[in-house]
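Message: Study each token:
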Amino acid sequence: MVAGEASGDLLASLLIDGLRQRWPDAPSMGIGGAQMQQRGFEAWWQSERLAVHGYSWEVLMRVAELLGIRKKLRQRLIAHPPSVFVGVDAPDFNLGLEEKLREAGVKTVHFVCPSIWAWRADRVEKIRRAADHVLCIFPFEPELLAQHGIDATYVGHPLAQVIPLHPDRAAARARLGLPEEGLVLALLPGSRRSEVRYIASGFFKAAALVKKALPAIKIVIPAVPSLYDEVCRIAAEAGMKDKALIVKGRSHDVLAACDCTLIASGTATLEAALYKRPMVISYSMHPWSWRLMKRKQLQPWVGLPNILCGDFVVPELLQDAATPEALAQAALGWLRASQDSPATIEALVERFTALHHELRRDTAELAAHAIEKIIAPPAA
């Protein structure tokens, strides 16, 4: 298995749970993170080694290292073929590896369909060459892949099982030391250093404007532990270090506790939707990276909640539009609605609850069953 970043580590750990139910003694190895290793996974390299972002210079600096890791892994797996190789997300790394392994006779599964419906339609042919089977986390993906001759199974989104249908806001606030009453704004500027660099400053400046309009509001930020000091520095530069609660990790507690979140586009936006929280989705990156990404966009939405609902159910403020003033006004719209227009918030909660039910499946069981059919297909 190869899993990149924290989200891939979570997906892969759930998959290991499902596989262990069928094959209790089956070893797993490759590239993985802490949650996988807690389940007995043998990590030859850590997931964090694959974490890159965008198209800028930082990716170019890492490309030789990543290609070297992929070559060593490919040679090792071809020399000692596994029963099946599972690439968990990280398509830029995994699809090329899967293609070479499949050519060598190794069965390959790709877990999480690349976003061919949002950004990368050009990846369809690569997926067809690379994967014997694709495990999909969104319900519309298997049919889309079938149109291109790619076998796939919808296994649900594992976060829909992890996150409760009815989050306990009061309990989450108690765990964070926040008052049970009053408004709370959460800032989630991303989990990568490059994201924090481009997004966090605007979020903190927006939070300062919200704080000026609503002095009693609490501001809370769940910082990735490795980026905690950098987040604190950026908060200080924005004059917000002493006006905000910055915690290490605990993003789910923060989302459960808040009334609204300013949030970087990515998996965290789906987490916020599953917590039924109003949000303002934003993203900023290097201008060159943005121009390249913008040309590849296939839908009018960027945020997962909007893509899955097929509508702008929450605002998106991207790149040049993501000014502190615009972000603050959008957040204030939700925060004031929570006090003055509860029907508006309730309508959003109902939309997100329906989405939660649609995504809630026994992901570990369904994924393991699909992999079992790849390893030992039924006799004709």
About this structure: DSSP finds 17 helices and 13 strands in the chain.
